[in-house]
């Protein structure tokens, strides 16, 4: 097969269906941009979980004098020194525990004033109203329930809290956005495939005389179909390239400049450029192969050779 002939046929087909080719490029670009964005969102959530779950602790809050009237778990009164020593000793014996820090009521009061010192209620809170607690760092944060089961019902323990719950709502929101992006991507992908099939059908119909002559002179099915498949693949490749640019520009303006989320949300560990660049080959490959496969299937119906 002569490459010059195939290339010329591709250019002819693209010029004849310029509007539909443009629609295919835009649809493929948007669907692949959403596809790449969903992959990056999933990696961002995973990165944030790895970063934050390594820093959160399990907090075991102990009963104080004022908890007896408000919490049934503290009906027996404030935690005793013996109970505190036993709890700490049992924590240190557990294989899943990495470190244990006892926070006194005075330390808890100091931290409270640092965070809420400007509020009205902070002016009436006293150190004796604050709860003592143990801050437990686990080797595997996923094993929080082991600690909760062991200490939640003990005398002197008011509650056991996993700080991961504070972050879970954020992760659930991001995962929800990821699912929405995947649904929209699927919709755009269906639209792109329909446009590709229609473009191939119109192109095959407009060149039915040429393909008929080629068939009469003994051209193979593959030789006749190749220009149509290459047209769709070329349009998909352009769409993949546009989607790649959109992902790069989106990373640049959302995180580094423009909205500059990296500066405004310094506590968030955002994905780097390497994560974006690693997804681009997949985006381009899908953009190239998906239209080519759709065109090949469509030609079996619309191009009788």
Record the SSE blueprint.
Elements: H1 3-16, H2 18-53, E1 58-62, H3 81-93, E2 97-103, H4 105-116, E3 133-138, H5 144-151, E4 157-162, H6 164-206, H7 208-216, H8 221-256, H9 261-264, H10 273-302
Helix pairs in contact: 1-8, 2-6, 2-8, 2-10, 6-10, 8-10
Describe the fold and architecture.
The structure is a single chain. The chain is 67% helix and 8% strand. With 305 residues, it is of the alpha+beta class. The chain has two domains: 185 residues, no CATH class; 84 residues, Alpha-Beta Plaits (2-Layer Sandwich), CATH 3.30.70.3040. It has a four-stranded antiparallel sheet with strand order 2-3-1-4. The relative contact order is 0.17. It is a multi-pass membrane protein. Part of the ABC transporter FtsEX involved in cellular division. Its main location: membrane. Forms a membrane-associated complex with FtsE.
- N→C terminal distance: 17 Å
Question: How many extended strands?
Answer: 4
Give the helix proportion (percent range): 55-70%
- Please outline the major beta sheet: 4 strands, antiparallel
Order of helices and strands: HHEHEHEHEHHHHH
The fraction of residues in strands falls at 5-15%
Shape: elongated
User: What count of helical segments does DSSP give?
Assistant: 10
- The total number of structural domains is 2
Low-confidence stretches: none
What structural class results from the helix and strand content?
alpha+beta
Backbone CA Rg: 31 Å
Mean pLDDT: 79
Strand order of the largest sheet: 2-3-1-4
Membrane topology: Multi-pass membrane protein
InterPro entries: ABC3_permease_C, FtsX, FtsX_actino, FtsX_ECD
Pfam family, one: FtsX_ECD
Domain ABC3 transporter permease C-terminal: 184-304
